[in-house]
Amino acid sequence: MNRRISKFTVLVACICLPLFSQSLNPPTITSTSQLQPKSKKYTPVFAMDGKLKTSWVEGVDGEGVGETLQIKYKSPINFRSLSIYNGFGDPKLWAANNRIKKLKITTETGNEEIVTLKDSLSRQVIEFKNEIRANEISLTIQEVYKGTNSENTAIAELMFDSEQAGSALVPPKNTWAIGKWKTKSNIARIQLHNDGTCEMGYETAKMLCTWTEKGDKVIVSLEATLPLTNTDILEIKRRGNATDPTIEINGKHEFILNRDEV
Q: DSSP characters for 129-170?
């Protein structure tokens, strides 16, 4: 990614998005900087647009420590937890870019907490000691996990678990695909989570992925080419019955439920 520094606060109103127009209390999302290459956008609104593959990326030289994402609601919201998808949401770019290790969360009402995030794309829930009521919440990068090819630091998605704020990311509907699967010979494994993220492979050789539904199929996007299929896109269909289901990948590879966890 090419980097351009934004020396001014970036203001993005969210009321134009259908996701937020359904809410009576839509947030306005700003940031102290954003990455501004020629062809792509990484605006602050992408951190709360309900899409894992779009991300806010800070835009200063270096690792982005001290850069802030600011969320402001018209009316106060009450929340006791915050859900976050750490790093760049596209699995092909997740490892290449920085992820947040320590994040400072502050509100205009005086709350302040520094939390440590896992180095994972799957949903993480930050629980607070007491319920917080606030109009304005700021998330400031304190420390990062370093990317392999870039100093850019990103947030794929976040949401406040609050009735006043609503929920941003809707889980996929194809619940039949959620779970742990493996080939009969155990050459390959895949685990699909209900938040649209997944992992392919083993602890010593694991790649991230995301999945979306497409009719009666599930489309998986891997961060790299899978040797078994020689592609980074998997098309999954369900076969068999409810007690002994199998899934077919790319029309020829059969996976069964990984009940024994091997």
A: EEEEEEEEEEEEEEEEEPPSS---BEEEEEEE--TTT---PP
* Torsion sign over Cα 41, 31, 172, 144: positive
Q: What is the pTM of this model?
A: 0.82
For 171, other C-beta atoms within 10 Å of its C-beta total 13
Instruction: For residues 191 and 199, give the distance between their C-alpha atoms in angstroms, rounded to a whole number.
Output: 5
* pLDDT tens digit sequence for 28-38: 999 999 998 87
Q: What totals of helices (H) and strands (E) does the chain contain, helices first?
A: 2, 16
Query: Among 85, 70, 75, which Cα is nearest to 28's?
Result: 70
Residues 90, 130 contacting (CB under 8 angstroms): no
Closest CA to 35 of 195, 194, 153, 186: 153
Domains of the chain from N-terminus onward: 10-160 (2.60.120.260), 175-257 (2.40.128.290)
The first and second tokens of residue 106, run together, are 């502050």
Q: How far apart are CA 50 and CA 210, in angstroms?
A: 14
